[in-house]
Amino acid sequence: MKCKSKSTGMGFKCLFFAGLFAVSLNSIGQRTAVMADPKLGAIELSDMAGYALDANSLQPDQLIKLRIPVAGESHGKSIPAGSCKIKIGLGSKLELDPQFDLNSAGLSSYFSWTSSVNSGQLQITGDLINALPADLKSVEVAFRVKGAIEGKSTITANFLITNHKTPVVLSDENGANNGAALAYRVTKKFDLVSSIPEGNLKLSVYPNPAKDVKSVMIKVAQGKLNGKYKVTLFDITGKQLRAKELQLNFAPNFTYELGNITPGQYLIKVLNTDGTESSVMKFEKF
Description:
The chain has helices at 8-29, 192-195; strands at residues 33-40, 44-46, 63-73, 84-89, 94-96, 111-118, 121-128, 136-147, 151-161, 169-172, 179-186, 203-206, 215-220, 225-235, 240-251, 253-257, 264-272, 278-285.
């Protein structure tokens, strides 16, 4: 930086601004660069007891636990605060449970979680407010959501490097593992009345009624079950609680896990994959 002046005052000003310019260049050169690999795992949906749900058979008003594994490889260095955000879009058919506290989502010591409606869908944003520990192993963040309206949509999640509020520059080693997506469908509520008479399979549940049980035995009255079957548990209002696919090989019976259900009346529906065999059974827990 050149400065020419015949007066002492002007010379002093030139020296002053030249010093500022040099300090500025020096500070830019000293910005720390950090290399890391923030990443997300596969999106999973379960009921509140932790049993996996069929993403294509979600029910209106059904409470759902949305889980996403978060991890970060950073070569022994923490991922700096203000360098990243996690953005999760619920799609147009799900909504956040109004009773859910975002502070309980997980990793709340590091991320500040907020929600807003953006382009017709609810979006959850996690702002990294404290440095994420070095080489973080997979930790789940979980949110309680529910079916809002019938139809198909997609949940999306992205771990974004933003460098929006940090003196360092964070670079991503692998941008291919920062995102996750899950297509889903909210279906019509299960029709309780029409489903009870249907079914050409003669099955029974044992014990029934039952107390303090987490699983039951489902027996076939005649013949054996062979192939892939979908077993779905509903409450008495027709709300789907969980669904599971089983591969059965000429089995006269099989065990079905109920989980931690409360006392009440339930329906268990068994359907083979091609739709030719089905049965709906009433079950009561007291």
